[in-house]
Design brief:
The chain is α/β, with parallel strands linked by helices. The chain is built from 6 helices and 6 strands; from the N terminus they run H-H-H-E-E-H-E-E-H-E-H-E. It has a 4-stranded parallel beta sheet with strand order 2-3-1-6, with helices on both faces. Strands 4-5 form a two-stranded antiparallel ribbon. The longest helix is centred in the C-terminal third of the chain and has 18 residues, at about 155-170.
């Protein structure tokens, strides 16, 4: 309540009416927000693209939260046959109700630059979505986090890796991303 009161008094905060803007498709190489993507030049991605390395023929598995296979930046790259969930009752294409972290990661990997929202590092790679995050509703389950919160069980992570190992020989997965964080470890080498 006090945060809203102080924000309301701040002259820099103004009400913004919701507006929907239609954007024309952007041609490849004409991404207006590319300058914000510091990671691409830092890893020399443009030089790799110029040399013909776009991720074509590679599969990247994203072990994370849900990925929407119909999103226009990701749909052309989604391998829905290999995608899976290891969370009971929660399909691989469903978010846990937070912020679609898995889709964010998938966009960094293979987002299609033709829609104006970004360039994926390997924009022609196929994506495998593997859901391992569960949503928790109680303070007891969330610990030091405000409920609802999102966590992943180690057993779900192991099942996800076993799934990828099972399909590896047929589908030749080039890379697996698991961008998790951990709490409860006070130092790098705990114990």
């Amino acid at each position: 309540d006090s945060a809203f009161t102080s924000a309301g008094e701040d002259v820099m905060v103004q009400w913004q009416d919701e507006k929907f803007t239609e954007y024309a498709p952007i041609t490849p190489g004409d991404e207006p927000l590319y300058f914000l993507q510091w990671n691409m030049p830092a890893m020399e991605a443009p030089a790799a693209w110029d040399a013909g390395y776009t991720g074509a023929g590679a599969r990247v598995a994203i072990i994370d939260g849900g990925i929407d296979p119909t999103h226009p930046d990701l749909a052309p790259n989604m391998d829905t046959a290999c995608s899976a969930s290891f969370v009971p009752g929660l399909p691989y294409d469903t978010d846990t109700g937070t912020f679609w972290h898995g889709m964010h990661v998938a966009g960094i990997v293979a987002g299609d630059q033709g829609y104006g929202t970004g360039n994926g590092v390997a924009r022609d790679a196929d994506l495998i979505a593997v859901q391992v995050f569960s949503r928790f509703e109680t303070a007891e389950d969330c610990g030091d986090r405000e409920p609802p919160c999102v966590k992943t069980y180690g057993s779900d992570q192991v099942q996800a890796m076993e799934h990828l190992l099972d399909i590896q020989s047929e589908y030749q997965i080039a890379s697996v991303n698991m961008s998790f964080s951990a709490t409860g470890y006070p130092s790098v080498c705990d114990g």
